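In this section we turn from sequence analysis to structure. A common task in structural bioinformatics is to predict how a protein folds when a small molecule is present, because the ligand can shape the pocket around it. The inputs are simple: the amino acid sequence and a SMILES string for the ligand, here zinc ion. Study the lines below before reading on.
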Amino acid sequence: MKNTRWLSHCISVLYPPRCMGCDQIIVHDTNLCPNCWKNITFIHSPICTCCGTPFDHDSKQDKCAACLDQPPLYTMARSALAYCSYSRKFITDFKFRDKTHYTNTLANWMILAGNSCLNSGTIIIPVPLHRRRLINRTYNQSALLAKTIAKHTSKPAYLHGLLRTRHTTPQTQLSKSKRQKNLKKAFTVNPTYADIIKGASVILVDDVITTETTINSCCKALLDGGATKVNVLTLARKL
Ligand SMILES: [Zn+2]
Ligand SMILES: [Zn+2]
């Protein structure tokens, strides 16, 4: 035990903890320096009970106008953070610069923000990375988050539950309506897990929602595959 403490002391001297936001050395291993803590925005109530967008005033409705007007395919979506210039730095490092040791911290923030999402879901599935990008990048950041959230919440994760569809017919050879249909079907349920997804309440995990196109296509594939509902849990979203 003493040896382990000594070893971790040596490691912290050689590799002192650094702020995920600005790289400066921090005294306590809190992942962010006080300045970056102050500048990142955690999303909290009051929020739309459906899409999770924060209300900037006390709303009499529990859903925002957009969700009332056109209900999304998912039942509820929650995000831990606003995607801003401060959070973009460490999210980009996590996605593209091998800072996979951020996974635990980021997954914990998602668990806190996604309590209701997680409680009413039974299985966890990440948004798959495009094949070409997976070859270049070697890891899928959404799968890392999904795996860690699954471990901490004792829920099963199916990291290859969804697949990107390969379009065998070139888009140019299709009529306009078929082309749109082809684009919409960007994802499909992996046949290996079809029986598990059928009848399941799915928690779909992604890093950032920028547009709802990807999320909607994934929801459609899961619902077409017989999922009873889809909850969406992401690390950050554009507000
Ligand atoms: Zn900082
Ligand atoms: Zn909403």
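The chain has a mean pLDDT of 87. As an exercise, try to locate the residues that line the zinc ion site and compare them with your own expectations.
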